[in-house]
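Weekly modeling sync, notes
Attendees: S.R. (lead), two postdocs, one rotation student

Agenda item 3: backlog of single-chain predictions. S.R. asked that every request posted to the team notebook include the full sequence so nobody has to chase files. The rotation student volunteered to paste the first one in as an example of the format we agreed on. Action items at the bottom.

Example entry:
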Amino acid sequence: MSPLVRASHMRISRLLPYRAGARAWGKYKVRVTTEAIVGAVTGTPAAPRALLLGRYDDMGRLRYTGRTVALARTATAALADALAPAVGEHPWAGRTFTAGWGSRDVLEVTLVDPQLVVEVAVDVARDGVGRWRHPVRLHRARPTSRSSG
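Predicted structure, as returned to the notebook:
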């Protein structure tokens, strides 16, 4: 927990102390907008259903960070022209992706050329290696931005 969140929690605790059986506290998810690189899709590049996203680490490796919720039809149509199947070596070749936290179901994915940058809304909760704990929401593609890795 960050010092800011911890400090906020302590202030709230003093104002509204926990009372067993009472619902005095509200839970709010904090979301931010950030950029990520599309490394794979569920479906096909011509008709993607969800995007698997990554970000480059300090060593220049594309690390998986999460996936989007199911895409709207309008987003699918807009992304179809911007996505291309991976050719040659891909940083995620041979990797498997699960359907969700705690799931053993493996997603069928198609690797794409990791060049498309997208803007996404993410919940700030992350796991120990930096992956977003919850699926993210696509805001828009940033075809003029290019991944650098």
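Discussion: group reviewed the output briefly. DSSP finds two helices and six strands in the chain.
Action items: rotation student to repeat for the remaining queue; S.R. to check formatting next week.
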